[in-house]
Structures are given as structure tokens and as C-alpha cells.
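Running log. JK asked me to keep both predictions on one page so they can be read side by side. First protein, sequence followed by its C-alpha cells:
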Amino acid sequence: MEPGQQKPFSEAVIAFHGRPLPEAAIPVGYAALIDAFELAVPAPIRLAAIGPRHKVYEADGWKLYTPRHRPDANLGGHLTFALRYEGLDLAVLKRLFLVTGPEPIAALVRAAPTGAYARRIWFLYEWLLDARLDLPDATQGSYAPVVDPGQQWAIDGTTSSRHRVKNNLPGTPAYCPLIFRTPLLEQLVARNLSDEARRLVAEVPADLLARTAAFLLRKDSRSSFQIEGEDPPQDRIQRWGHVIGEAGHRPIDRAELERLQRIVIGDARFVHLGLREQGGFVGEHDRLDGTPIPDHISARHQDLPALIDGLTAFDRSAAQSLDAVLAAAVLAFGFVYIHPFEDGNGRLHRYLIHHVLAERGFNPPGLVFPVSAVILDRIDDYRRVLEGYSRRLLPLIRRRPTDRGNVEVLNETADFYRYFDATPHAEFLFECVARTIDVDLPAETAFLRSYDSFKTQVKRMIDMPDRVLDLLYRFLRQNGGKLSKRAREKEFAALTDDEAAEIEAIYANL
């Protein structure tokens, strides 16, 4: 579509771009703008429409408003509705501004120079496009926040005197995913999980806490490989565990990410190290002709330096103001969608979670939350979260297969990785972190207390080395607290019946 052109805005429909509505309704806000201006962008997870009823309700990915909410059927009406009721979708807004060109946006501001929504739209145009509208600086109007903090998570930000707005966007034009406030996230943020974790470990003796921390670190390292379908030797697990334990000590930039990739890969004889120099995708190949069958298309290799710079800027600025878990979700999931390397992206994506939590002092000193282990337990949920955005991207990415079984992207896609709705990712990650505090940390501490008590009591009966005690305890755990016939006849044939019964009683009473 040529700049400034548009189709008429829709009247009532029963389906919108393949998405059925709960009932016949008029798409408004972002839905109306995407349709009228034929914007090639991922549609928001939830769209808005004007229904016939006099009540607001949500169903099937739509929020239906009443007839009295209906905006004027023009650019300004639908833009204002979107900002008022739907929050910011920067990918839609940037594409819209590119299609409208500057004059329609400038006209909106001239028509309402003191209006808060007009000034926010004006600021967003200049911020997203790095282009100045032919308008004098605003001189009236109270300073309005660019992000409505009642709808989406924002930072304190800075003021823009030209537009008389407060720029509280949690990022830069180079990288700024947004997160909606949801009841789940409000509840989890209010819990202050960091303080909960500190109170929990304060009750654990130092030696026991050190052993707990060591176990959880190994568990996380092993799980991160298992998520990728790998079963590496113990030395690789230990090396990566050491790297995770050092997370947060070094700032994230391109050089640091490339250093970490070299550690992740190990044997790089068949892997290109550093940023990709060709396309990338996640998926399979047709078994007959090798044609790529992508589940996710990575960012174009030409866009990688700028996108990594955007990630770096986010980590060093906005991430310091957002809640730590929210910041970790934005940084880590953005990285994995960009997929900057030929290999190693998955483990680095999860490393970035640890990086933010450690750098922000979220986890108690010396303790790593085994987030990868929880992700492994919830692998289907993890994949659904990842694929939720990837599936919306695929139809918008024009590509062709290469003779090396890869894909070449033919259109501009960088904004798809700069601006996305990270709400599902933040909810998932927060639930994982909460589980490590509610379940994994107490369970491992309780296990070690139980194990130590078992060893002490058995040693009072029998002089037994630790390795044999460990085997004895594992046999009992695996067999419901009873020594199997095989164990009694082989490894522990030297035990008398009375000794075996007393050991089983010790275990039962732990």
C-alpha cells in the first residue's frame, strides 16, 4: 500500500483475518488499523471490537466493548481507542506510521495540540521512526506517560519537553518488548519472591545451604542440556554449571555472548562461531529433498549487530528498572527469537535468565535457582510459549530455501524481534521462578536434612563408608523404604535381618 492510502474501516463482521469473533461485531483499535492500512504485522494476542450488547466482555481472544465505546471511523479515532484501551503495540504503530507518512500524524496533533493522546502519538512517531514532524514544540498540557502504567509495565523514565510527555518505555527504539499487567503477574510481583527466598535460606545451616546450592547448580546445568536433547559427559555439565554460577558478574554485550557461545559449543569444528552470516530457522528438513520446514524463522543475519546492540542497551538501562523476573523474560526470550548464533542459542537464552537474576541480586548470594530444571519439567508449556509468537510470525516472513538447506528472508523483519508482547513469556518464567522457591529449594534442603539424619543413625549401628551409605539410601528410596530381595542378597548380604529391619525403620521415621 502506498503511503497515506487506506481501505474503508470495517463494519460488523463475524471473522477477522481468519479469527472468528464471539458474535457479529465491529473491529476497532489495532484490528481496524491493521485491516484498513493492510499492515503486515503480527496481530495483538487480544483484539478489540464493538459488540451489540451493553456490557464489556472477553471471549476467544477478543474484548468486546459496548456501542458507546465506538470510536470515530478514522485514523485518529482508532489510534486513540488503541492507546486508551489496548495499550501500546509498537510493531503495529511503527508499521502504521510508515504507511501513513508524516502528514496525517501531524494533522492529528494540530487538531488537538494539548490532547494527551495526540502528544503521545506524536512522541511515538518521532521515537520509532527517528524522524521529526513539522510541528513546533508543545507549550501546554500536563506531562502524560507514554506507556499507561495501569495497563503495561513501565519504568520511571525521562521527560520529553518537546511533546510534554514522560517517556517511560522500558527500552529503546532498537529493542523494546512490552508486558501487560495481568492478575497473575500482579500477584507474583507482589509476593516479592526474592525476599521469600532470603527468609527461606536464612533458616538453613551454612554447610547444608552450600550443599543445596551445589546440587541445584548441577541440576540446572544438566537440565539445560537435556532441554536441547543432549546427554553430555559430566565434565561438560560441570563446566557449564561453573559458567552459570558466574552469571551476572560480567555485562552482556556481543563479545560476552560470543565468549559464552565458545564455552557452550566446546568442539566447534563443524559450527560457525560468532554471529550468523546467513539465515537461520528452527525446525526440520523434508526427508526427501531437504527443504526446510521451519517452526520459527530467526532474525536476518544483516540485522543481528543492531539487534544485539538493542539487547545490550536494554540490559544496561531498562532492565535495571523493571522487576528482575520481568526483565529476565524480556531479555532472554528476545534473544532466543533473534537466534543470533548457528548453535548454542537455547542454553545462552537460559543463561541470560540467570544473568539478570544474579546481576539484580534477586537470588540469595551463592544460590542459583534451577530454572532450567523447572522448564524441563514443564517442557510442553515452554514450547507453547515459544511457539505462540513464532506461529504468528511465520505467515509474515517471505523466504525462500537455499541450496544449503537453509532459508533466506526476503522482507524487512527486524521490528518483529524488537517489539513483541512478552506477557506470556513473563508469566511462564515467573511461575518457574516461584516453583523453585516454593518447591525445589525446600525439597532439596529437606532431602539433605533427611539424608544426614539417616547417615548419622545408621553409623551409630554399623561402621559403613559414605559411598555404601549413599547406595543404601538410594535403594531404600527406589523401593518405597524397603530393601529389595536383590539388595539383601547382593550389595547388603552382610546385614542381619534385625539390622535390615532397623535400617528400614530409621528410613521410615525420617
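And the second, directly underneath as requested:
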Amino acid sequence: MTSNRGVAYIGQGKVEVQNIPYPKLEDPRGRRIDHGVILKVVSTNICGSDQHMVRGRTTAEEGLILGHEITGEVIEAGKDVEMLKIGDLVSVPFNVACGRCRTCKEQHTGVCLTVNPSRAGGAYGYVDMGGWVGGQAEFVMVPYADFNLLRFPDKDQAMSKIRDLTCLSDILPTGYHGAVTAGVGPGSTVYVAGAGPVGLAAAASARLLGAAVVIIGDVNPVRLEHPKRLGYETVDLSLDVSLADQITQILGEPEVDSAVDAVGFEARGHGHAGAQEEAPATVLNSLMEVTRAAGRIGIPGLYVTDDPGAADSAARKGALSVRFGLGWAKSHSFFTGQTPVMKYNRALMQAILWDRIKIAETVGVEVISLDEAPKGYAEFDSGAPKKIVIDPHGMLA
């Protein structure tokens, strides 16, 4: 096989399906790596993080092949691969990790020290993340395969649940990480900011962890209709009613035990007027307001060091007007950073296989072809309440 196609970022607001090189067992600097495998991509998802790049809100270069949420079948393996065989169906954590450095050994695979020459942490198809080619393609290469890949124990069973299992590469572990780091447990009251796929995954994770009440907030009322049907409490942040007042209407008090920021740096203000404009610190400040004293706030939502499309010069450098004094006064704990997917994905795989969580239903998985990817990006960017999954080879039909 020598042909391959992938989704390329070609300019602000534009992606295109292009012919791209068939992957080799080489790292981005051209060095042979016999610890890698080539995957036939079974499913690959469009993520909100991809949209940040496509909107021109990062320093991503044109021509970047997108895609860090990947599930695939092993079709070629380097000579140093010992634990995987041809035909295995695997989930790919979006973190590229070596398994050998200090942070990897401490399970902080989101900040691996060796896979990216410019900073800690690597990812497929993402700006400043080491140059690893993205997986919104027909074929992709994965390094350190024995360490990185999660093999599904029964291929037929996995394919029967592939719409759920495709979420293991990022959004389900990310939502779960947000809930875990926010201290969610049995009987917790939880507020999740953002009704996109990660927010919904965080809400589902909070239920899995035993939360008593899960409240989801968004400035887009349309996005709240689906979680409301699933039995979650919701707050409409486009209304001129404060978040604390809306929480009081649900809980009888204006505070929650735990909170999760599933929005990130492109957040909008609250209220009818505020929802029309970006206010990147809004979510963080609102979470400090409604989280109880000594509570915890999980922040899996993406924040960046460079945002060329930001409204002000400070935000362009990732500097936000956060009310840190409020968080300090309330003795809050904050947990940030890329999710270390491998810390959670095996347990979450079991939860899916044994029907403890139905994540595809929760996040609204919709399957499209590779050729439909540009349309999928446009729909997702418009705020469509769905999780778009690309099926490059027609294996999910």
C-alpha cells in the first residue's frame, strides 16, 4: 500500500481532504523507529481542540494534517514491537508518550519529556506538539506502540461498540479526568461548564463516579436540549439570571461541591449581551464563585500560550484576568493540563464493554465519511450538538 488521504488545515476556517504520504516507521525528524506500528484508521473524531486551530486561534501552520482521536487496526509493526500483532484493534491515546522518561513513569503521559523538542508533551496532528502526523486519515503511524496502544480484547465485541470505544482516545478520559480532579464522588453536587462533547463526557463521568446531582451550563440553549433529555440538570447562561441564582433554583443553595471547566480559552460571557462576546476568564471566575470553600475545580478545557485571534493583547499571550484572589480565599484546588489518557482508558474501556456507560448516546456520535470531513467541521463549528466521527474506510456502517 502506498496511497493515503488525510484532512489538512489549509487556512482560517478551511480544511481539505488531500492525498498525503503513506506513513513510514519514522519519527517527525526522519529517524527510523522500530517500536512503532502502522494503523489502518477505523475511526477518527473531530475535536473542539481541532476547531481552535481551524478557526485560526493558534499558530498552526497551513498544511497540518489534523486528528488526534484515533482508533485503528494494526497492519504493520516494527521489529521491536512485542505485545501487539497484525490485525489487533487498538485505541490510540491522543498523548504521544515514550514510556521511559520521568513524567511517563509517573503516569503524566500528557507531558512526556522526549517526544517533542520544543516543550513537554506530544500529540498527533496538533500545533506545537512535536510534529506527529495526525490521524484524520486512512493510515497513520503510532510510535512506542507497546506502551501507547490499548488493545481491545475481543475484536468483534469492540466493533459492535465502536461508536462508544472511539471516544476512549480523548473525550471520555478527558471528561473523566475533569471529574476525578474536581473530586467528584458518591453524593457530590457537580457543575460542568460547557455542553459540548467534553462537557457531556464529564457529566457522564460524574454520574459514573456516583454524583448525586450533575448540572450542565452553556450559552447555547440548543446544546442544552440533549442533556436535559438524558436527565441532567441544566442552566442557560444566555439568560440574564446569574449562574449562582440558577444553581440555587436547582439545589436550594448557590454552591456545588465540585466544578469542571470543559470550555477553555474561547469562552463567552454570561447573560444575553455577554454571550455574544468572548471573555476568556469567564468560566474560571464563575466556577470559583459557585464552588464551595475548600472545593476542587478540574480544568480539562484547553488553554493556550499563544492565541493570535484573541480580543486583547494579554489574552494573545495566554494571560487572563482570573480572580485568583477569590480562589485563594476559598481555598480552592485547581487541576489543569492535558489529560494523561492512559491513566484511565483501560478502566473506561471495561465500563463501556460492560454497559456501565453509554458515551456515544451521551455525546451524540454521528458517523461521516472522510470526504465529508469539511462539512463535518463546518457543522461542529456552528455549535451542532453532536460528536462527529470520521469513518475513513466505511467500517462503521
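Observation for JK regarding the second prediction: The longest strand covers residues 37-45.
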